[in-house]
């Protein structure tokens, strides 16, 4: 049976969240501003039509926004995180396997769902809208890259009414021709520019390139993109290019986890990883979401999954603060009596570390600037001597919950990219 | 912690707080075996047969459940007072007889959905308020079905 992946993506997520509890804003243009420098970071469809560009500083467009009656919001990650967790929960309830990809996107494996992937996705879309108030678009394809491409088409083409299945299209090649090379998942702006200069301007032209040439010029990542466009799944679940808005760190366990203490250790460990990534890209985060799920393929076992977003008082990249928040969240959603297969964390509302507005009075005592050297030292030691040379006690010493392949001998390369 | 305030309330509106449905600590408390006849807990009830977790009792589907604070007194007859918290489930199909949160002309309101010979209407439970008839022209949508009221005595 051919695999059928769906990429489900919330439309103008932050703007939709602001609207979810304000019926008076339906049909009105809405923009959301970043909390540090007052730039536009989200626009409703109506605001896009007014020509408001992403990233415009507020002081530059303020007069125009007022004149046009645009509703303006400061970002509210407590709200976005909560609604994100709810959307992910609905997906997890109705799809056998779900991979949280970013605050507003998830991949679902819809292979073999009753009634076919497209009809199923339409019901899924209606359910998410009814339960959370968030409109989503669904793209379906034989690989994650094709699902991502189909999703873009679903969003841009009103006649698809929010759902597009590439495999059911009478002319899938036309959709690939319509997709600009820069919009292909996994092809960055640098490669896109080089490819365009060579006359490769869309996904279809890229798909026809010679695979050895692609591998030479664009490494194995480019090759994976090429093969995925040809319909060969190469990017497994929980892998693929990292989204810029969000950092996700999650894994399936080597064997089922039942103990609360193990789950808390695991979530601390994933938080540590996510915080390292966060500091590597010199960002801070405004919220951390934790999620867990049982193995829905094991029929006859009691199933439970949940997600909870914990907003942070001050945007931070401080591992102990993030671990504390993640553990508090996990404490709330963990229930005894289930065999858990997976847990993870997601950091959202990322901002550059430098540009943030710091209210020193609001800083929790554990997060004095004096902790920054400590974080830097921890990162430096781990970079120099290998991962987890220095780690936080919360993430455990024995780690009985680990993946089997984690029991590797030192120094062997690891597979998988989602840690 | 996970709640967000909505400051500017429309006059008829009532959403001043929406919190995540499982945003409280899970705290199973003992549940007495017998019901208490009007407030005389009997010492014999010290035997507790199971524990009650209010979240589990009040919230069937956390992802579709919202806590909402009421403003106004148009639903006193349904034991909904100003300042109470409603437990609202958005996954249920509304039926006549349900207390619902509805959007009418871009504003939230909490009323009972009623079926009359002439069609559907939103009925208050307080004689000081008017019934809202639902016609073809009404801009109307049910936002969610109210399942429980949390009232401070």
TrEMBL record, chain B:
<dbReference type="Pfam" id="PF00717">
    <property type="entry name" value="Peptidase_S24"/>
</dbReference>
<feature type="domain" description="Peptidase S24/S26A/S26B/S26C">
    <location>
        <begin position="31"/>
        <end position="146"/>
    </location>
</feature>
<comment type="similarity">
    <text>Belongs to the peptidase S24 family.</text>
</comment>
<dbReference type="InterPro" id="IPR050077">
    <property type="entry name" value="LexA_repressor"/>
</dbReference>
<dbReference type="InterPro" id="IPR006197">
    <property type="entry name" value="Peptidase_S24_LexA"/>
</dbReference>
<keyword id="KW-0234">DNA repair</keyword>
<dbReference type="GO" id="GO:0003677">
    <property type="term" value="F:DNA binding"/>
</dbReference>
<dbReference type="InterPro" id="IPR039418">
    <property type="entry name" value="LexA-like"/>
</dbReference>
<dbReference type="GO" id="GO:0006355">
    <property type="term" value="P:regulation of DNA-templated transcription"/>
</dbReference>
<dbReference type="GO" id="GO:0009432">
    <property type="term" value="P:SOS response"/>
</dbReference>
<keyword id="KW-0742">SOS response</keyword>
<dbReference type="GO" id="GO:0016787">
    <property type="term" value="F:hydrolase activity"/>
</dbReference>
<dbReference type="GO" id="GO:0006281">
    <property type="term" value="P:DNA repair"/>
</dbReference>
<keyword id="KW-0227">DNA damage</keyword>
<keyword id="KW-0378">Hydrolase</keyword>
<dbReference type="InterPro" id="IPR015927">
    <property type="entry name" value="Peptidase_S24_S26A/B/C"/>
</dbReference>
<keyword id="KW-0068">Autocatalytic cleavage</keyword>
<protein>
    <submittedName>
        <fullName>SOS response UmuD protein</fullName>
    </submittedName>
</protein>
<dbReference type="InterPro" id="IPR036286">
    <property type="entry name" value="LexA/Signal_pep-like_sf"/>
</dbReference>
